[in-house]
Amino acid sequence: MKLLRRVIAALCIHAAVLPGAHAQAYPDRPVKLVVGFSAGGGSDLVARILARALGKQLQQSVVVENRPGAGGMIATRAVAAEPPDGYTLLLGSAAAFVINPYLRRDVGYDPVGDFTPIGAVSRFDYVLLGRPGLPVASLQDLVAHAKAHPGQLTIGSAGVGSNTHLVALSFLSRSGIELRHVPYKGTAGALNDLLGGTIDLLFDSVPTVMQQVKTRAAASFGTTGAHREAMLPDVPTFAEAGMPGFEASNWFAVFGPRRLDPAVVRRLNTAMVQALQDPELLDSFRQSGNIALGGSPEDLAALVARETQQYETLIDATGVRLD
């Protein structure tokens, strides 16, 4: 609880400055939303859906700018160094704010001290996939098979320390099974190898593999959310499949540089909350496997603090480090 209170206080204090005169007219020119990954990916899709709806509420263009590289760290560093005027924002994620800073000695930014939280955007869950022909029919069958053949099944990931790796580690810890980890540079290669039968298992995001699950190109043993996915109603949750309490997800949220004018923060947050109720946005999120979040800047600060504690515990227990 001490860590939770410290992180929330530190995140929120950077908005606690006197409002500038420019806030009254904000925004009077286009707002830039920076994404740390290439166009066409999951984070880019969320950014563009949000940008359209947010632009309507702000009555100003919101332009998505892709700055890929270093797992999103290049974009995150760049936004941290921008003037706190509300015209350059970041679409951040759990990886950038609660995982990478703990896995690496120096990411080049302080996820607490260098940013002002504005609001959560969306989250997505994961699904555990199995290669075609894997001789198990359910999650319980899979666990039983893995226990009977320790270390024989393989599980891919987007790389050591990635979200999909940490979800897999959490699954292994919870189920008590032993799998051989095969890290890739992103889940695209891992998914191709899974479909080709080179690896046995893979946790991947629902938005990424929705089509493969629907067409049964790969077996699906469960999704990691609290409820079934709207677009995958036939796939049980892990709780329904026999592992109650096992949940995992990733999220996207908007942050500004530190000491962003609180009047600008309020303007942006109000516009985001309204944008996240837009029927067109909600339908686009639903079709892409994303779930709208929303909430206050304080809610986002609490989310960052809570998940920082959770990932620190998991990473310490598993001994994963990137440097």
Short key terms for the protein model shown above:
single chain; 323 residues; alpha/beta; 11 helices; 41% helix; globular
Main structural class: alpha/beta
Number of helices: 11
Order of helices and strands: HEHEHEHEHEHEHEHEEHHEH
Q: What is the share of helical residues?
A: 40-55%
Gap from first CA to last CA: 28 Å
Number of strands: 10
Mean pLDDT: 91
Strand content: 15-25%
Specify Rg, calculated over alpha carbons: 20 Å
Stretches where pLDDT is under 50 for at least 5 consecutive residues are: 15-19
Spatial shape: globular
How would a textbook summarize the main sheet?
Answer: 10 strands, mixed
Entry summary:
With 323 residues, this protein is an alpha/beta fold. The chain is 41% helix and 19% strand.
